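Q&A log
Question type: sequence-to-structure
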Amino acid sequence: MPISQHGSWSSFLRLCIFLSDTSRLSPLIAYFCRSIVQERFLFWESFCPSSEVPGRLLSTIALLLVLSDETLAYCCRRSDLFAVIADAKVNKARALAVLCWFTSTLKDQYASRNESMGSGRKPLNPVLGELLYGYWPDQNNRGRTTLLVEQVSHHPPITAYVIENKSKGLKLVGHNAQKISFSSGSIIVRQIGHATLTIGDTKYLITLPKLRINGLWYGSPYIELTDTLYIVGGGFLSTIEYKGKGYFTGKSHQIKATVTPLPVVEGPWHERSKFTKGPHLSSSAGDFHYVVSKSKEIITAVGGEKDGSQGEYETRKLWNLVAKGIREGDYELAARDKSRIENEQRQMRKDEVAEERKWQLKHFKKHESDPIYEKLGKLAKLTPPEEDYYEFLVNWPESLAS
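Response status: OK
Response body:
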């Protein structure tokens, strides 16, 4: 490849790598392949003749953008803030605690996770029925927080999950999917689904933000959250407006959150936000939330079988050889085993159609409508007024049941 083309080629690669993030249930693969982005750059720059780049690369990299559901393993990196929700009084203080916890998860969910490299993404597709089990340990009497994730649909890709702190009486159950469109040189990702946080007898409905992928023309894509998100429950409505950087003006990653009628919180969600209106202005210099810069807590993964081992559909076992190939630079092994998994899945779907049977979910049951969404959604005048949901069957594996 001519040296003069290296800059544009690298920009193209960065874009394609970003768009290739079709993994949805492989959060712990990031554990094994921290240098995946750098390795892919070296691999493609070394072995792809420039004349063959578009066809070879695009046939290998699926241009379907689905944000990695490693995000679910980042939702409780601040397990302390999740636990504090239960300790807050049943009034506006609790509504603020829910808002604070949720805001604290945004950077790890939607911005850089591996800050030394800029991203911690990986090229793995989800499979129907893929599972992840893990927990964040009890520290400082906050209680243990457990996580269960199941890929409940492949076409379209839908993930259902539950996060629970039993000692605090906290349980978050939800699902998410995405619809993608293009507008003015950007990719718009409309997240479909919602989550319900249960604290004793009180329920909070949490909707999902819309995402805008900017910087495509420059080969340096980045995510901005857009539109409005709502947290409804306990007699309070929190309205979160996401504002990003425009072509000529504005700042990136901004929010304005109002817990009706007051207080108002504003600032960058990936750094620190402050109270700008209301009685909290005089306390703690007006700070509302801040992003912890020190080493963050990683989920502890566990096996879901009775003896504590991993089942065939658990993320780390399923993608073990792919991760090994990436980690060791054996791209042939990684590509071969990735193709094997995907071909086996295609054949399973064909067999199910031929035998007129459906894949049986392990931990969730789908319902066409959610009465909690309909009831609480009316307060925020949500559109659509109805949504389906996945009921958790309360069948934790033995490794997480206690």
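Response note: Residues 1-318+367-402 form a domain with the Porin fold (CATH 2.40.160.120).
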